[in-house]
Design brief:
The chain has 368 residues and is an alpha/beta fold. 38% of the residues lie in helices and 18% in strands. The protein has two domains: 186 residues, Glycogen Phosphorylase B (Rossmann fold); 166 residues, Rossmann fold, CATH 3.40.50.
Length: 368
């Protein structure tokens, strides 16, 4: 069995965001295929670890990103555990990755979650050009690269001339292999919990609400999409899930009369995906794949998304479960919701062949 080390530079247990969930589930499944060790920060809940060993060698402070003493510490662990490959989550630690490689000779893989400079440019960060140079440098020096979306991989190979042979698609995955059988049960439970009548449809929006792209998407729902649905006279409720809603929005109480329900952060989002008739994804900024879309379709739920929000999805395996609308066309977005109100299609089996974690980590393990 291969000995693999992963560097996860921030807390991911318990997970609260799509990026944290990606790391947590990727490690859980990869740990079943290889002898896995993980270096991360001290804030992780070690009691949630399965199938691998967690080493809390990273400080919780931001200074960990320039802690030169980590070179010796990581090199020592590589030698002690006979590590053959290190996977570095994100390119942030590239400077450290190549120092460790020089000292140990270990294979070095960078797992990207986005083309990071593009994400920060879309968020208006002034320093994105510096990150662009650093990120490109890290891609060129890595032995292999895991990309979460085909678009990111294509960008790397065409725009940055990265060797295609070392660029591998490793998407965000799901822990299920078929359409759920308990959708009706979840619909009844979530409906009862939030006071939603049986004849009312459930629309869902989920995401970390302290992340600006999700805040903007929420405002789009409140100011553009929902008013159009209200005019149509359909019976429905929109459930908003996610942590970090600004206090000034008062838990969306001002919108309750318009069919908006704020559920806050929910520990188990899967029942909400199963209960929803349609998931809304009017996101237009940020980067990478929208993990909530991958999960919603896996749990048999129709998704209506903007063009930007659908970036990274393999539409060929989504069947009729994904409807994509041009950015900023909120009339068309609302029309698509109304047109797919009675969706009864099933998620194609090819979807699970593509997005099941078990199949994804098989490929990752073969590269390590």
């Amino acid at each position: 069995m291969k000995n693999v080390l992963v560097i996860a530079p921030y807390a991911y247990l318990p997970w609260q965001t799509g990026g944290q969930k990606l790391i947590a589930q990727f490690l859980e499944y990869l740990g079943e295929k290889v002898s896995l060790h993980v270096i991360s920060v001290q804030k992780n809940d070690a009691g949630l670890v399965r199938h691998y060993s967690l080493h809390p060698l990273l400080s919780n402070k931001a200074s960990r990103y320039y802690d030169t003493s980590l070179t010796v510490k990581i090199a020592a662990l590589v030698k002690e555990k006979n590590i053959q490959t290190i996977i570095w989550e994100h390119p942030y630690y590239a400077w450290l990755a190549f120092r460790v490689r020089k000292r140990t000779g270990v294979k070095t893989i960078i797992q990207t979650h986005n083309i990071e400079y593009q994400r920060f440019r879309s968020l208006g960060k002034w320093w994105w050009p510096i990150l662009k140079m650093y990120e490109r440098w890290s891609f060129k020096k890595a032995d292999a690269l895991f990309f979460i979306t085909p678009e990111d991989r294509t960008f790397a190979t065409t725009e940055w001339r990265i060797d295609p042979a070392k660029c591998i698609d490793i998407p965000f995955g799901v822990p299920v292999t078929a359409n759920p059988t308990d959708k009706n049960e979840c619909r009844q439970r979530i409906g009862k919990q939030h006071g939603i009548a049986p004849h009312e449809k459930i629309l869902l929006f989920n995401g970390a609400l302290d992340y600006m792209p999700n805040q903007d998407a929420l405002q789009t729902i409140l100011q553009h999409i929902n008013p159009l649905l209200q005019k149509a006279g359909m019976a429905y409720k929109i459930i908003i899930c996610g942590r970090g809603l600004p206090a000034a929005m008062n838990e969306l109480k001002d919108y309750q009369s318009q069919g908006i329900l704020y559920a806050g952060f929910v520990n188990e989002i899967e029942p909400y995906f199963k209960a929803a008739d349609i998931m809304l994804n009017p996101v237009q900024t940020g980067g990478g794949i929208k993990t909530k879309m991958v999960e919603a379709i896996a749990y048999g739920t129709m998704v209506v998304s903007t063009q930007s929000g659908a970036a990274g999805m393999n539409r060929d395996v989504c069947g009729d479960k994904l409807v994509v609308i041009p950015d900023n066309d909120w009339n068309a977005f609302a029309t698509a919701i109304l047109s797919h109100w009675q969706d009864s299609t099933r998620t194609p089996s090819a979807y699970y062949d593509t997005y099941y974690w078990g199949a994804i980590v098989e490929k990752a393990a073969s590269v390590c």
